[in-house]
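# nightly structure sweep
# worker-07 picked up a monomer target from the shared queue
# config: single-sequence mode, recycle default, output format = structure tokens
# input follows
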Amino acid sequence: MLKVEHIDAYYDKICALHDISLEIGDDDIISIIGSNGAGKSTLMNAISGIVYGKNGRITFNGKNITNQKPYITTRDGIIQVPEGREIFPKMTVLENLEMGSYSIRRTRQGMNDKIEEMYELFPKLRDRKSQKAGSLSGGEQQMVAIARGLMADPKLLMLDEPSLGLAPVIVDDVFHIIERVNKEKKIPILLVEQNAFMALEVSSRCYVLENGRVVIEGSSEELSKSDRIVKAYLGG
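# output follows
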């Protein structure tokens, strides 16, 4: 589905990613872990077209999307839920969900059906639909951000640090939702996450970034038993 081949990425003249390659299949959850500044978010932004990629190429369902305008990439079906959630705080939960569907032509009934689908996946949002999104708890705001992304009918969902700033019990809920989205909605997911334990637990394959380079890749099960990964990222 998605293939990144030997991409470098730049902020102005500063190279932030070096020779990055990865693949995501149709039903995968692929995780990317690494310390702050490793290049995880930059990789997502390069896929989305927000950050300029040089050399190599990025293909999605056979189409070359390297440095494609972000709005075109969104219409192609790659939806990114950004770090920090970036919801519209002064708009209601319902309005945030409707904003997620801006690129999809729907009838009013189609919009209502899609919103109802989100309420079934995130029951708390039904109770909060008329509430300003900025007044919600961190966990509820993350649910709004994911649901808003799903409103765009993604063919690939990219989640950037979904556990950031959340209490451990809420983190469990969020990752349970991620697994449900993948299994029930059949949506592949690219997951950038500092919580390496949870990332390895839900994903089938993992890439480890350090200083803008992939230093380790392999099955999540194998990496969770690696001494290097345990010591560096799992507190072993």
